[in-house]
Amino acid sequence: VNYAAIELKFIEEKAVVVGYFDSTLAKETKLEIGDIITSINNKSVAEIVKERLKTTPASNYPTQLRNLASLLLRSNDSLINIGYNRNGNSFSTTIKAYPTSVMNPYIKYQTTDTCFKWITKDIAYIHNGYLKREYLPKLFNEIRSAKGLIIDDRNYPSDFPIYELSNY
Questions:
Q1: Residue 104, class by beta-carbon neighbours within 10 Å (0-12 exposed, 13-18 middle, 19+ buried)?
Q2: Is the pLDDT of residue 129 over 70?
Q3: CB burial class (10 A; 0-12, 13-18, 19+) of residue 55?
């Protein structure tokens, strides 16, 4: 499966270019943020959405559209024909689609962010989704001076540090 370097999002039921998975490869497409994709391989986006909605699992329509947006520019082919609108004018172009060995479409989900940061000079923050048990001794030496600590549990932990964490 190949992916275009363009990130789409449905805004008011329109497939809009909102970003790039690879800015160098995306420049070759000539598509700009804000362009509205109207057709893909000579089929209207509305028609594609209508066909795919019944097989797109999600709890509601906006979530179905969110999930569909990430699939629209995915193809078994290396070229995708695109129709789009920019500032009220219609254009068409052919863009390349790349295998994941060339371009990573999941890059925004892969973070190198740390599990710890200071919110203010007195408030520390731990993101439990990235926290590892082995980090705790070093973190808590740094956190000792904090007046407050936020432990963000709105995620799945990458490790299971709850028992060690509660000891601190």
A1: middle
A2: yes
A3: exposed
99 within 8 A of 109, measured Cβ to Cβ: no
d(CA 25, CA 163): 46
Q: What is the rounded distance in angstroms from the CA atom of residue 107 to the CA atom of residue 88?
A: 31
48 C-beta neighbours (distance < 10 Å), count: 18
**Encoding tokens for residue 70?**
């990430």
The amino acid at residue 143 is I
Closest listed residue to residue 3, CA positions, set 86, 106, 93: 106
Contact 19, 4 (CB under 8 A): no
Could you tell me which of 32, 155, 47, 50 has the C-alpha nearest to residue 95? 32
Q: Are strands 14-20 and 89-96 parallel, antiparallel or unpaired?
A: unpaired
pLDDT digits (tens, 9 = 90+) for 49-67: 999 999 999 999 999 999 9
Cα–Cα distance for residue pair 102/99, rounded to 1 Å: 6
Residue 91 in contact with residue 34, Cβ under 8 Å? Answer: no
pTM above 0.90, yes or no: no
Q: Return the number of other C-beta atoms located less than 10 Å from residue 108's C-beta.
A: 10
Please name the residue that has the structure tokens 């940061």. Answer: 117
